[in-house]
Amino acid sequence: MRAVPIALALLLVLSAVAGAVPGAADSDRAQPRAPAVSATSAATPAQTDDPNVNGSKINVLGIPTEATDRSTLETEYVELGSGLSFSTTTTDARLATESIVERIESAETTEVRQQYLLQEVSAIEQQIVSLRAEQRGVIASYGRGEISPRRLLYDLALIDAEARELERRRARLQSLSESTPGFSISSSRFGNIELELNTLTGPIRGHAAAVLRGEVKSARFFVQSGDNSITLGVIRDGTYVRETYRGPLRGTNDGGFSLGDAVNATETAYPTIADRRLRDDTLGNPDSDSARVTIEHERGRLVAFVDSGSRRVFKEYQYRPLDQVSTGLPTSAVKDGLRLTAYRTYPGGPVRLQLNSTDTDDPVDAQITVGPAGGRSSVVGTTGADGSLWTLAPAGTYEVTAIDGSSVVLLTVEPTATPLVYGTVNGSSASDGAETVSTTPTE
Asked: In whole numbers, what is the pLDDT of the chain averaged over residues?
């Protein structure tokens, strides 16, 4: 992967956004469309994650507090230079695929064609190893504070784009292999390559790539890291999108892994989603290092990757329309004739802020800032005519300020506990644990 000067790193700006990267990997296709609700709509959460309400909690894959290195939530803007550099790199990768295909198709003999095919399939497998190592290095650098959140997003977007191009190349090579007389490469080998490439892509990484290309507007990103682990969050097109990768939850395949095992592991990890399932789909084979389980449910969509060695979910995407987002018990503050209410969620989750007049109860349109308690706050938007704004919750205790002319109200918010799939400890077997938030947020 080409090095990119830090000055050209990804910059992003707050707004409600839509769309996915054209030609995305299967794991990011056909996401459920959200209702016609903007990121500032007053859609009332349909459920609550109050632990006293039985069966409402939707678990998420995440990084336990004690394993978290760094959390950030920033509003940034687009820079032309980084987009041009990104486009150049991805174009080079696409041209490399075409060159490889042409070389194979123009081979003078069948034997040479077979040799080229084997070489290129092995090359993709080696590139997967390299991309995996690069991803781990980028996450570690971010966790140590050596690179900014924008640089992390840029590098993850570039890994995503290269993995997507390698997937296109894999599909071309599989087609060429199947059309070569007297020769074949096992479909399970191609299938495993596809799955491993999928684990290097994601909807939020893909969205960052679309921002770089100037295809969509940008958004406010939540980023959290741990040991070979990353969680990303964004509000996109009226939908909360969450993406998490947990490297420590991968193991060594000891055989005997089936698609049924993958489905069972997913259902155990996400009982509420399993209970509210509308349809599902599974991809993998007994020789795969992982399997992908997709579940469309009443409150959104889950894509879970289950490791064949550990038999645990190690990567997830979740899509949650804002009017289906679970919230905890609200908290409010009143001052200067204003009542500010936060419908809370966990760190990195979507929180709805509501501002009303204490005299008339009418909604108030005012500027909202969010920041760590006692720290620097950032403007996240305005509440609009309906007095409501959706934004992402920082990690740890944070302060929300509403400013309407000379009237100001300040609300201190404690996020709800994160309903982690595997509890609070790395390697825990709990499927319904919830961690206590203690991470200090940075803005």
From this structure: 83
Q: What is the dihedral of CA 62, 219, 30, 266, to 10 degrees?
A: 10
Residue 279, Cβ density class (10 Å: 0-12 exposed, 13-18 middle, ≥19 buried): exposed
Q: What b/e sequence results for 81-109 when a residue is b if at least 16 CB atoms lie within 10 Å of its CB, and e otherwise?
A: ebbebbeebbeebeeebeebbeebeebee
Q: CA 33 to CA 420: how far, in whole Å?
A: 25
How far is residue 9's CA from residue 344's CA, in Å, rounded to a whole number? Answer: 32
Of 125, 156, 161, the residue nearest 25 (C-alpha): 161
The pLDDT score that the predictor gives to residue 78 is 62
**Which range in 135-144, 145-154, 278-287 is most confidently predicted, on average pLDDT?**
135-144
The pLDDT of residue 404 is above 90: yes
Q: Rounded CA gap, 110 and 378, in Å? A: 62
Report the pLDDT averaged over residues 318-324.
95
Instruction: Specify the pLDDT at position 338.
Output: 97
Work out the number of other CB atoms within 10 angstroms of the CB of residue 178.
Answer: 12
Q: Name the nearest CA neighbour of 308 among 266, 257, 247.
A: 257
Pairing of strands 326-327, 47-48: parallel
- Please state which of the ranges 34-38, 77-81, 98-102, 388-392 shows the lowest mean pLDDT: 34-38
Nearest 10 degrees: Cα torsion 31, 37, 38, 40: -130
The sign one gets for the Cα dihedral 60, 31, 392, 337 is: negative
